[in-house]
Write a structure and sequence with these properties.
The chain is mainly alpha-helical and about 80 residues long. It has helices at about 25-40, 45-60, 65-80; strands spanning about 1-5, 15. It is about 60% helix and about 5% strand.
Amino acid sequence: LAVSRGGPRETRGDFMPAHLDGVRHPIVACCQTHKIRNAQAELPDRVAATVRTKMRAAYWMGDVLEAEAAPVELARQLAKCLP
């Protein structure tokens, strides 16, 4: 299912999946979603939901330095609890 965004074809992006209509950067959104899914697939169920929540929070942080540091801290925490 695709939604026409209007404008000339040369603008690239004249069609986009309907479920991403209104998302500023749908390609980035998909990559973030897949990264979260891939991380969850490698983790035990007991920590997968927490990792998903923390990764989503990092993607939405307003401060770039804080957003870059969050996954590093998460990896440190996981290394401690998952040998």
